[in-house]
Design goal:
By secondary structure, this protein is an alpha+beta fold. It has 6 helices and 18 strands. The strands form 2 sheets. The chain has a 15-stranded mixed beta sheet that branches. A 3-stranded mixed beta sheet has the order 16-18-17.
Length: about 325
């Protein structure tokens, strides 16, 4: 008789035999089951929380990198807070511009001036600036100013002239150690020296604010305010010789290819005169005669003499009037 082998034929049979031998598994106690379930759930939640925290940290790191990149990009592309508020129109003699704390020679090629620019003229020097907005600012010899803003100028010492005719926007504010001047569409000169303030108004009106006290002045008037605040008023004509320094450094317009009327209008204003045509014929000629040449370094009346010499127009100065006529109108 053949006996059956006591060894299982393979591993699967062995496992099956063991299960049959063990019989049905006894259910664990409820308390033990709940303890195991609670422990397993806590472990799962802890593992999940760690994974979520790691993901959050990864996202935060990525966001930080992106934010840094954006910030760097913005810093690279942010425009300067400084802005150009004036252009050098003319320099006569010696003038200097403060650069990095040092005074450097100034020329017309110095170009645009930004907020905060400081400049000064030396003995015999003069500067004309074209302010953004259309006004003309001129500095006499031995004058120092600072451009504190588009319409705010600090006159530290010396003498300046402002022509605000045709300027767009509000008036200008010029601060000095002795008071602040505010203009209303005007031409005026302001000088400060050892605490004494002098204002000369050629056109329009100007108001001085001295420690809260407002002092007004109008065209044709000179105002002197001493160190104690005492005010003295006198008269000054728009054609007075005292204005000649302003005419000397006046930036000349480009008259190439322009009608003679452009030059006549500029000269009349720069010399403080009213322009008058003797006849309609003279006015029409001034509007049609075309000029050629450059008057850049000439004073207004000298430029007019040179340019009209090639035309049939001529002029006469009669009081505060510049009268224009054709040569055959005598």
């Amino acid at each position: 008789m053949e006996h059956e082998s006591q060894e299982p034929r393979n591993g699967r049979d062995l496992v099956a035999a063991l299960i049959r031998a063990a019989g049905r598994r006894t259910e664990p106690p409820t308390d033990a089951y709940l303890q195991v379930l609670t422990a397993a759930t806590a472990a799962f939640r802890e593992k999940t929380a760690k994974r979520r925290t790691r993901n959050v940290l990864l996202w935060a790191a990525a966001a930080s990198v992106a934010a840094i990149a954006i910030t760097l990009s913005m810093q690279w592309n942010i425009p300067s807070t400084k802005s150009q508020i004036a252009t050098v129109a003319r320099v006569v003699g010696s003038a200097e511009l403060a650069t990095d704390g040092d005074w450097q020679p100034m020329t017309r090629s110095s170009g645009g001036l930004e907020r905060g620019a400081r400049l000064r003229t030396l003995a015999g020097g003069g500067v004309a600036l074209a302010l953004d907005g259309g006004a003309s600012l001129r500095l006499a010899a031995a004058t120092e100013v600072q451009l504190d803003g588009p319409r705010r100028i600090l006159l530290r010492s010396g003498k300046l002239y402002l022509d605000n005719f045709g300027s767009v926007g509000t008036g200008y504010q010029i601060e000095t150690p002795a008071g602040t001047a505010r203009d209303v569409g005007t031409q005026f000169e302001l000088r400060v020296n050892d605490g004494v303030l002098r204002l000369r108004v050629r056109e329009g009106s100007v108001e001085i604010d001295r420690a809260g006290r407002h002092i007004g002045s109008s065209a044709g008037e000179q105002l002197d305010i001493d160190v104690l605040g005492g005010v003295t008023r006198s008269s000054i004509a728009a054609t007075d010789a005292e204005w000649q320094w302003v005419e000397t450094i006046a930036p000349a317009p480009d008259i190439e290819g322009k009608p003679a009327s452009v030059l006549l209008t500029w000269v009349a204003r720069e010399t403080g005169r009213q322009l008058h045509y003797e006849s309609t014929t003279a006015e029409n000629r001034a509007a049609t005669v075309i000029l050629h040449g450059n008057i850049r370094h000439l004073a207004p009346l000298a430029a007019l003499d040179v340019m009209l010499a090639t035309t049939d127009l001529e002029y006469s100065l009669i009081g505060d009037t510049m009268e224009v006529r054709t040569r055959n109108e005598h």
